[in-house]
Design brief:
The complex is a heterodimer.
Chain A lengths: L21 E5 L4 H8 L10 H10 L17 H11 L3 H12 L6 H15 L15 H15 L27 H9 L18 H9 L2 H8 L1 E15 L7 E10 L4 E9 L12 E4 L2 E3 L9 E7 L4 E8 L4 E12 L4 E5 L5 E5 L5 E4 L2 E6 L2 E4 L8 E7 L2 E9 L6 E10 L4 E6 L4 E5 L6 E5 L35 E7 L2 E11 L2 E13 L3 E8 L4 E7 L3 E4 L2 E2 L10 E12 L2 E11 L6 E13 L4 E11 L2 E12 L6 E4 L2 E3 L1 H7 L6 E7 L6 E8 L3 E3 L3 E6 L4 E4 L6 E2 L5 E4 L2 E3 L9 E7 L4 E7 L8 E11 L3 E11 L2 E5 L3 E4 L5 E3 L20 E7 L2 E6 L6 E10 L3 E11 L4 E4 L6 E14 L2 E3 L9 E6 L15 E9 L1
Parallel strand pairs in A: 1-4, 5-8, 20-22, 26-29, 33-36, 41-44, 49-51, 55-58
Antiparallel strand pairs in A: 2-3, 2-7, 3-4, 5-6, 7-8, 9-10, 9-15, 10-11, 12-13, 13-14, 15-16, 17-18, 17-21, 18-19, 21-22, 23-24, 23-28, 24-25, 26-27, 28-29, 30-31, 30-35, 31-32, 33-34, 35-36, 37-43, 38-39, 38-43, 39-40, 41-42, 43-44, 45-46, 45-50, 46-47, 46-48, 50-51, 52-53, 52-57, 53-54, 53-55, ...
Helix pairs in contact in A: 1-2, 2-8, 3-5, 3-6, 4-5, 6-7
Chain B lengths: L1 H15 L22 E2 L7 H10 L6 E12 L6 E13 L9 E12 L8 E16 L2 E17 L2 E5 L5 E10 L4 E16 L5 E16 L3 E14 L4 E20 L9 E19 L11 E6 L5 E3 L14 H9 L18 H11 L21 E4 L11 H9 L19 H12 L22 H12 L19 H23 L1 H4 L4
Antiparallel strand pairs in B: 1-2, 2-3, 3-4, 4-5, 5-6, 6-7, 6-8, 7-9, 8-9, 9-10, 10-11, 11-12, 12-13, 13-14, 13-15
Helix pairs in contact in B: 3-8, 4-5, 4-6, 4-8, 6-7, 6-8
The chains are: A mainly beta, B alpha+beta.
Chain lengths: 951, 528
């Protein structure tokens, strides 16, 4: 299908781009000889070089040796021979020479010369007595050409026409009478031209000049030889493998686009052999001083080439280097990937077809893409019917750009770099980088802005089409348009430079990272924000910025150092190297990356493939000290950002593994919460003796890592290897603040290995009452007749009526009541019923149906099973004496049952019993009196905890 | 009566799926954790050798199955979060008989979830067999898939309570868009389902429990990592009047990491080598947003379940890189050699020499494992009497180049499109801005640029070519590149081999870590 004379080819879907009308022309087998003989070392890109190479390709110039000697004068014999060859008589002349050889001529050159001259005489190309020796003159050459062409193809010249051209030469009188008609015809046909003034008929002609003259014979030559001259652009090169020969040759196909859109394919045999002798069919190519075969061609080359239509061969190719580039614009009408053609509809409704250069189209999985505006675009999504601009080289499309349809409304699109409503101007940078300043009158313009949270409108506000009186959710004031917004601006037609309408869209990006420092100022705070790649930025956050944590809006003061945050940032580049970032929204992470555990032990190895750190003698830090002993603990290292320390020095994981495995060096590990389970966040090795201090308040910190505790005289130093957990977050020693409630593990004298900071326990603000209901306003409030308030472990009675409000947020526990059933009628009436309530001011947050719990027990939680707690160091309040007595001397533990009505107060809020941790010291209110000294009856130490306060 | 049927069904499923059919996904990983708010341990990325074998077998079948994946889901039908752990099978069958290159078709995707006596709580059982008819179409580089439940059987047993699906009143629909960029396939989908159950309560009366689910699916796949995270909101309405609303975010992230191990013996021909390790992180996190107030003390409003995975691994080659030991980019270069992204004689990889466009593109193509057309791998050779034909898409890009297949792949993927003069210039030295643009295009994150960037943040903004500006701005925004200490990008400077290795390694790390983080922590940690 692709090549007529070659074996069938395997078809690849993406290979046949050129399938339209085409003609194939194969190189000639003698081309290699011609190329070698045309490659004269003294020609290069000298002026007649192309003519010489062309002459050789056409067979009219026959020179032996490495040099052409272009400046050498031509002999008459040589001139005759060249002309005879040019008109295709070389074969016949050689035959005549051969015949004459029998007559006694000895050398082949002499034989050939005789063949040419004899034939020329016989054909009346030269008169019988024409001298063959000596140097040829210009008029003689004109005569030779004229006679020879007339002899082989009469009628090519006008013949004995009225003399016209010849008289334009100043020296026409010098032209010999015998030559006058020849010179007239030859100059009229522009084969020879003189120097513009004179013809110089008797001057000699050089070999170079002769070559040029012969090349001017093209038209005649082509007619004689059945050749056609064509002009086109190389668009692609494709290879077709032949059955492998020893030299490994294959056919290369060069597709050439002609100006009319049709395609010629020039074929030659290429091979891997370095020896030119082994090459096959080819054509002579002249490319800017280089002579070679068709392999010289590359895409985009503009070429002039000569083909023999009859036998389908290509003879000669001349690479023209003055490619014509131009640009056309029109409606994109169609694009055929198969034929690589694009059709434009011009304004006068004519269709123009332009071929596309290869490389502009790619194919992937049945989809075809074209480069448009420098980007790959699927052909099916091209803007058909709209205007495009085509960049042409020799009429072949090398680039496409989108133009679109006519602009109806002048709108400027740009990026706002400054908006100053006070002075009524805005500076916009347009797509070309121009800074444009425009004025506006705030009250006389239309402004709309699409915010990041409001991008789901179904239909745009259509006042642009006709007056619309509906609410425009995007309408806003010009003050809301910020630097960094992308805007479309329309100017007032009556007052250029003044904005009449503006439509803006926010242009924000999310940033994730950790807050490493906060400095509060009046009205705003500066936040040092560390992104996950370690890059830090100071950001200013206005106090009215929308800040949330776990779905609730929080105050900027609630943000803590160490918090992870998601910021919605408006980043605007005002000038090269100068950008501003302003925080639009801030979301603070909940406990997702909290440090959930601190472990100590001794490193015993790393399981590389499973990415686990193995620690022997592993224990976890809790409020009651190091607990949960395991011989081997395994901790996930699936965290790309683990930091390792040895005392104050940062080390690598490999160094740690090499030096401390195994060793007596204690390792402290901070474990962080992760969506796929707990993982290591920080690893710190300490070589000094450990001491754990009881939790106490920080009374001073110097901001350089030294802290003073309530019960310690000397300051305690922290260093970069200290694990500091502050309210769940991993921070540095510099972030410890006076007033923090810290539990410290020392490694060596006054140096902290671990500082664990949590809010100091406090339940003093919790208001818990025992009340009797006298009236209920359904779903709104209720009145109580009298009440007792819990202070510490005492209920204090107040005979005062009070009202508490209730709503959907009020939690009902312990009885089947809900807001709907908390009423004083029907058989579930709560009239005169007694409840425990938790109040926030006059609002009841919890209403609990539970027995009156007026007995008190204290203890430290050892374990929380979810439905019960185990306490140790249990003290029972003797209400009569007011003394706290140990429950038991032998086994001073108690079990506290957690029931559906159990409430737990911690840090002045009611929390779930699930949040009680081992180590929490709690006060439990229960209705059962714990008997003291229960050595012989373990069940004595068990009761339902009704109210539990962590303190 | 009903309960008896359920037990029979359970047994039947357990027996039917005791056999294992090993297979890997070739049609995308979406659904590797199901669409039901649960998680599996994830399907590991294939090892290098495994991938080669898979590549060689690609195209033989469209059918894929993953069996016996350990599966955890939170069940809500009794109004509280109850953890179920069992096994899941996924099978994907070609439904329409269409070739892989057709632009539309159908598939049949079946999920089979069942209890296993050795794992999970024996009092919490789930049997779910759901078959989706999936209609899909492709427009350019995007694929749209719509799942619709065809067959669906489901029975749940929670601490003595039995629930059976009312098929006629239940619906499950999913629609997913996949966007295929050169190095990353991104996808996003929506889930909407209503399942209606009959509950057999203790009094042998039947109550209706409705479970309404709406959710979003986000995921991506690269050669080095794949993540799927779903964010699902559910409402359980128990006919008795109780309602709860929860949000659950199941997520699985799989990736391939490199670990270097130095050898202990001295008398060994190589000092150490890298191994690649597949890792998997699976977790689901939930929050109960609304529940009856009386439950406040019984139910923790937040919870989590995770699944451990067993990491697989393979040793990587150990090239001798003595000639560059101590160079600042030694680690980058060593890693790229180990991953066979840089090949050849290490002695010829001289770090401070220029890297050509072809060299950089070859590294890039290997780094993101661009699909390589086998036909382009070797220069055109004769096979029997059927000669091959190749296309010369750029006049200076010849098919007998050894790197031709990679350059072709880079071009077909739209990463490199020539220098605008119709030539590819493969052997010219690459400019920094070219390399940055190629890297960004590989990630397919061009949209993150300002789409009309008048200026960049770089002080030498004026040197950045127009064609590069947008992609460079996007690359800056996503943190792939940053200004140097003078605030410059030096876009027109040429790039050394060491710099190229560092950039390619950075790109891989970006896919391994930054992308994963954005689809897991950045979503899960800000659940509310």
């Amino acid at each position: 299908m692709f090549i007529m004379a070659l074996p069938a080819v395997a078809v690849f879907a993406d290979d046949f781009i050129l399938v339209d009308e085409r003609r194939e022309f194969t190189g000639r087998t003698n081309a290699q000889t011609l190329i070698r003989s045309a490659d004269f070392s003294d020609l290069g890109s000298a002026w007649p070089a192309e003519a010489v190479v062309r002459g050789v390709a056409f067979g009219s110039i026959h020179a032996e040796g490495a040099n052409f000697n272009q400046g050498q004068n031509l002999t008459r014999q040589d001139a005759l021979n060249a002309v005879m060859r040019a008109v295709g008589l070389s074969g016949e002349a050689a035959a005549r020479g051969n015949e004459l050889l029998a007559g006694g001529f000895t050398t082949s050159t002499a034989m050939l010369n005789n063949g040419y001259s004899t034939l020329a005489e016989e054909m009346d190309i030269i008169p019988f007595d024409w001298p063959l020796f000596g140097q040829a003159t210009r008029q003689e050459v004109a005569f030779l050409i004229y006679s020879a062409v007339e002899a082989v193809a009469a009628g090519q010249f006008d013949g004995e026409i009225p003399m016209q051209t010849v008289y334009t030469f100043g020296d026409w009188r010098v032209i010999g009478a015998d030559y006058l008609i020849a010179v007239e015809n030859i100059t009229a046909a522009s084969i020879m031209n003189g120097d513009g003034i004179n013809f110089n008929p008797t001057a000699n002609i050089t070999r170079g000049e002769m070559a040029q003259v012969l090349s001017n014979l093209d038209e005649i030559f082509m007619t004689i030889h059945g050749l056609e001259r064509r002009l086109g652009t190389v668009v692609s090169l494709r290879d077709t493998d032949q059955p492998q020969t020893a030299a490994g040759s294959w056919w290369r196909n060069i597709s050439v686009r002609l100006g009319d859109g049709t395609v010629d394919v020039l074929q030659y045999q290429a091979n891997n052999s370095p020896s030119p002798q082994t090459r096959g069919a080819d054509a002579v190519v002249f490319a800017g001083g280089t002579v070679g075969g068709l392999s010289l061609l590359s895409a985009d080359d503009t070429i002039e080439y000569f083909v023999h239509v009859g036998d389908g061969t290509v003879w000669y190719v001349n690479v023209l280097h003055n490619a014509v580039e131009n640009v056309v614009e029109g409606q994109l009408f169609s694009l055929y990937q198969q034929s690589m053609e694009v059709t434009l509809m011009t304004p006068n409704l004519t269709r123009q077809i332009f071929p596309l250069v290869d490389g502009i189209i790619t194919t992937r999985e049945d989809n075809h893409y074209i480069l448009m505006d420098g980007q790959r675009q699927n052909i099916t999504t091209l803007p058909f019917g709209q205007n495009v601009r085509l960049f042409l080289r020799n009429n072949v499309v090398i680039r496409m750009e989108f133009v679109g349809t006519p602009v109806l409304v002048e709108e400027l699109r740009g990026l706002v770099v400054e908006n100053n409503p006070a002075f009524g101007y805005m500076v916009v940078v347009d797509g070309e980088g121009n800074r444009i300043t425009m004025r506006y009158y705030e009250q006389e313009m239309m402004v709309q802005r699409i915010s990041h949270f409001d991008q789901t409108m179904h239909v745009s506000y259509i006042s642009q089409l006709f007056p619309s009186f509906a609410f425009n959710p995007l309408a806003t004031t010009i003050g809301q348009v910020r630097a960094g917004d992308i805007v479309f601006v329309r100017q007032d037609p009556n007052e250029p430079g003044v904005i009449s309408m503006i439509s803006a869209i926010s242009n924000y990006i999310m940033r994730y990272g950790r807050i490493v420092n906060i400095v509060h100022h009046e009205g705003y705070m500066s936040v040092l924000f560390e992104q996950e790649n370690g890059q830090t930025t100071w950001l200013e956050v206005a106090n009215d910025t929308f800040i949330t944590r776990e779905g609730r809006r929080i105050s900027p003061l609630a943000i803590q150092v160490g918090d992870w945050a998601r910021l919605l940032v408006n980043e605007a580049v005002l000038a090269p190297g100068h950008s501003i970032s302003s925080v639009i929204e801030m979301t603070i992470e909940g406990n997702a990356r909290h440090i959930t555990g601190i472990v100590r032990g001794h490193l015993t190895g790393i399981n590389g493939p499973q990415n686990m750190m193995m620690v022997e003698h592993a224990q976890s830090l809790s409020a009651i000290g190091w607990t949960d002993f395991r011989d081997i603990g395994q901790f996930s290292l699936a965290n790309p950002n683990i930091s390792y320390f040895y005392n104050n020095r940062r080390i690598t994981a490999n160094e740690a593994l090499r030096l401390f495995n195994p060793s007596g060096t204690t390792v402290y590990i901070a474990l962080e919460n992760h969506f796929a389970g707990e993982r290591v966040a920080m690893v710190s090795f300490r070589s000094q003796r450990e001491e754990r201090l009881p939790a106490q308040a920080v009374i001073r910190s110097d901001g350089a890592g030294n802290i003073w505790l309530t019960n310690q005289i000397d300051p305690i130093a922290t260093d970069s290897g200290t694990i500091v957990r502050r309210n769940g977050r991993l921070v540095t020693g510099n972030d410890i603040m006076p007033g923090d409630h810290a539990s410290v593990v020392l490694a060596g004298a006054n140096r902290a290995a671990v500082v664990d900071i949590s809010p100091a326990p406090d339940t003093s603000a919790l208001q818990i009452f025992r009340v009797r209901v006298t009236r209920v306003w359904d779903g709104q409030s209720f009145r109580v007749a009298s009440m007792s308030q819990l202070f510490g472990s005492d209920w204090v009675f107040t005979p005062i009526e009070r009202e508490f409000t209730i709503d959907r947020t009020t939690v009902f526990l312990g009885g089947g009541h809900s807001l709907d059933t908390f009423i004083t009628y029907l058989d579930t009436s709560v009239y005169n019923q007694v409840f425990t309530i938790v109040a926030d001011g006059a609002h009841a947050t919890h209403i609990i149906e539970q027995p009156f719990a007026n007995r008190s027990v204290r203890g430290t939680i050892v374990n929380n099973f979810g439905d019960s707690l185990i306490l140790r160091d249990v003290l029972v309040l003797d209400h009569i004496t007011g003394r706290w007595n140990p429950l038991s001397i032998v086994n001073n533990t108690a079990t506290i049952i957690l029931d559906m009505d159990t409430i737990v107060g911690r840090n002045n809020t009611i929390v779930s019993p699930f949040e009680l941790q081992p180590g929490d010291e709690i006060l439990v209110m229960t209705e059962i009196f714990f008997a003291g000294a229960a050595e012989d009856d373990p069940t004595m130490g068990e009761a339902v905890g009704r109210i539990i306060m962590v303190d | 009566m009903k309960r008896k049927i359920a037990v029979t069904l359970l047994l039947a499923f357990i027996m039917a799926f005791s056999a294992t059919i090993p297979a890997f996904a070739t049609t995308g990983r979406q659904g590797q954790i199901g669409f039901f708010g649960g998680i599996t341990e994830g399907i590991p990325l294939p090892m290098t050798t495994e991938a080669m074998i898979l590549d060689a077998n690609t195209g033989r079948t469209q059918n894929v199955s993953h069996t016996d994946l350990v599966y955890t889901e939170i069940l809500w039908l009794d109004g509280t979060p109850v953890e179920f752990t069992g096994l899941m099978d996924v099978t994907v069958r070609n439904g329409g008989g269409r070739s892989a290159n057709a632009n539309f078709g159908t598939r049949i995707v079946t999920f089979n979830i069942r209890p296993n006596e050795n794992i999970g709580d024996p009092d919490v059982l789930l049997v779910r067999e759901i078959t989706f008819n999936v209609n899909w179409r492709r427009v350019g580089d995007q694929i749209i898939e719509t799942y619709s439940a065809a067959n669906w059987v489901e029975e749940v047993y929670i601490y003595g309570m039995f629930f059976e699906l009312d098929r006629e009143r239940s619906h499950y629909e999913i629609s997913i868009i996949r966007d295929i960029t050169p190095g990353v396939t991104y996808y996003s989908g929506i889930i909407s389902a209503r399942s209606v159950f009959w509950q057999d309560d203790a009094e042998e009366a039947w109550e209706v429990v409705t479970h309404e689910v709406v959710g979003q699916i986000y995921g991506f796949e690269t050669a080095w990592s794949a993540v799927e995270t779903q964010r699902i909101t559910g409402i359980v309405d128990i006919a008795g009047g109780m309602q709860i609303q929860y949000e659950i975010v199941p997520s699985v992230a799989v990736s391939k990491e490199l670990q270097y191990r130095a050898n202990e013996p001295t008398l060994i021909s190589f000092a150490g080598n890298y191994r690649e390790v597949t890792t998997s992180q699976s977790g689901l996190n939930f929050v109960i947003n609304v529940m009856p107030t009386f439950m406040a003390n019984q139910v923790t409003p937040q919870g989590r379940a995770t699944l451990d995975s067993f990491n697989r691994f393979e040793q990587l080659i150990a090239p001798n890189l003595n000639s560059i030991r101590g160079h600042w980019a030694y680690q980058d270069i060593r890693r790229l050699f180990a991953m066979e992204i840089i090949t050849g004689n290490p002695e010829h990889f001289i770090p401070n020499q220029a890297v050509t466009r072809a060299e950089f593109m070859t590294m890039l193509a290997r780094a993101v494992k661009l699909p390589i057309d086998q036909a382009h791998r070797t220069p055109p050779v004769q096979r029997g009497n059927r000669p091959l034909q190749v296309q010369l898409i750029f006049p200076d890009l010849w098919p007998n180049r050894p790197d031709y297949a990679y350059l072709r792949a880079i071009n077909e993927a739209g990463i490199a499109v020539g220098r605008g003069d119709g030539h590819f210039h493969p052997d010219e030295v690459i400019m920094r801005q070219e390399a940055y643009v190629l890297a960004l295009r590989t990630l397919g994150l061009g949209r993150l640029s300002l789409d009309m960037p008048p200026v960049s943040i770089f002080a030498d903004n004026g040197q950045i070519a127009d064609w590069a500006m947008s992609d460079i701005q996007a690359a800056t925004r996503i943190g792939l590149i940053a200004p140097d200490e003078d605030g410059n990008l030096n876009p027109q400077e040429y790039m050394t081999k060491a710099q190229a290795a560092a950039l390619i390694n950075r790109l891989i790390e970006y896919m391994r870590h930054e992308l994963i983080r954005d689809y897991t922590e950045n979503i899960i940690n800000f659940m509310n």
